[in-house]
Amino acid sequence: MKKYIINRVIRSILAILLVVSIAIVMLFTMISRTLVFEQDATIKKLSGDKRTIYAYNKWEDLGYLDFEQMSAMCKEESKDFGSCMITGSDENNRVVSLYKDKGYTIQYLNDGTPFASRDYTALELISKFYSRLIKIDNPTFVKDEDNKDLKRGYSIGLDHNNLPAIMCSGCEYQYQLYVDGKFPFIHQNIFRLDFGHSFPTSQGIPTIDVISTGQGKTVNKQVKFPSGNVSKSAVDLHTCKYKASSTLDHLDKNKFNNNYANCQSNYDSPSMISTSYMFGILSILLSYLIALPAGMYMARKKGKWQDKVGIAYINFLIAVPSLAFIYFVKLLGQGFGLPDKFPQLGYGNIKSYILPILILALLQTAGLMTWIRRYMVDQSNADYVKFAKAKGLSQREIFNRHILKNAILPIVNGIPASIILAISGSVITESVFAIPGMGKMLPDAIKSYNNNMVITLTFIFTSLSIFSLLFGDLLMIFIDPRIQLSTKGGTR
Questions:
Q1: Which of 78, 472, 483, 489 is most solvent-facing, going by the fewest CB within 10 Å?
Q2: Which residues of 193-229 are buried (b: 16+ CB within 10 A; e: fewer)?
Q3: Within 10 Å of residue 15's Cβ, how many Cβ atoms?
């Protein structure tokens, strides 16, 4: 059992790395990098050399290439900086030749100043991505020339809410491990995934923060700052990062007694990932509550009018395009006074949730009803069912106590996938109802050529998809201990 799980985890990780690596190579080598500026307002304001320098700096930041201006080239390769910076001088030409020999392409600005660039190979693109992917916070993280006496190390104490926390001085984040009232209640800032920054949309913000940061208006509440001052603020002290001494202002010094003053805010609406997960989980629960009893009832009444009505319902949902069904239910809902757009009433009104959740649930019921009916009909012809009938058990008892236990296993196997993948949201439903979730994040990122966001979402969705299969197998064992997992034969 343990050996099987370890092997599955290793294979899963390798599969994730392979899929993400292919995505990285395709995005950075097969699509013109000039397209990343299609929605960039800054580059449209620039022209000439400023535009060229901006473009190459941005391509370097995004991981396309290595870019070196002449000043950096001279600092790196010349002992005579002044002579090196004179275009056409012997020292200048020597340094330029050195960079040519290193495989760089030499180009010239309008004023004749050379610069060098080198596109990364596919192997370099992959290695650079994975080398920065996992960030482990530690007391050596901070590099601040204006605070050389900074004490470094960990400490255990109480946070501003008088709850226990592990704190750090010298780390990027002050709070390394802390407790609060938000699920999953215990949080950490020690290990983080770095997929780079979002561009051109949400410029300068890490892609993970774009997905996981709250939305809407900031929420002010009474906050006791480290300095002892108490005031209304939207600051979330658990998210505070180190701020360089040169950038601290009088407001920071009034609230904080150290440099951990770069904090995120609290918002009145959940993040995109939380929004999609909330709608996804609720719709899955509703779909199972509808589909399982309906499918079981259809199997019991096989061939009768109840079964035929259920089959007609399934065929209707399969035949009708999802978009048409969404608008049909949406139109019906408007007749009952339900909003046709989520933002009309927002997060605080239960009416905002009814139509999207109902639509998502109903769209899933057709498949679930089909499979539970099929499994139960198949099991009804098994020998143990004939034996149960011979013992005099009623049809209801046979279905509920015997057939269901065996027929439910394939459905149970898919539950983890349904729950975990609910995080991906629904592209069509979220778009129709203008729900600020993750459903349309991937197509939007692709259309805007936001490579880092595409890679982030690819990593997340691939990881969830692959590990959900493992969780499904483990759940089957929990439901039926007779099932064993084997490295040779999978389940048996």
A1: 489
A2: eebbbbbbbbeeebbbebbebbeeeeeeeebebbeee
A3: 14
Is there a contact between 94 and 154 (Cβ–Cβ < 8 Å)? no
The amino acid sitting at 310 is G
Domain coordinates in residue numbering, the chain: 34-127, 138-189+220-265, 272-439
Q: Return the structure tokens found at 300.
A: 């019991």
The matching CATH number, chosen from 1.10.3720.10, 2.60.120.820, 3.40.50.10240, 3.40.50.150, for 272-439 is 1.10.3720.10
Task: Determine whether 118 is exposed, middle or buried from the number of CB atoms within 10 Å of its CB (0-12, 13-18, 19+).
Answer: middle
Q: How many residues does the chain have?
A: 492
Q: Tokens 């065929």 sit at which residue? A: 315
- 47-88 per-position pLDDT tens digit: 999 999 999 999 999 999 999 999 999 999 999 999 999 988
Strands 186-188 and 134-136, sheet pairing? unpaired
Asked if residues 138 and 153 have their Cβ atoms less than 8 Å apart, the reply is no
3-15 pLDDT, tens digit per residue, is 878 888 898 899 9
209: Cα separation from own chain's centroid: 9
219, two tokens: 């929420």
Query: Taking the model in full, what pTM does it have?
Result: 0.85
Tell me how crowded residue 68 is: count the other CB atoms within 10 A of its CB: 23
Bridge partners, residue 265, by sequence: 235
- Give the pLDDT band (50/70/90) at residue 180: confident
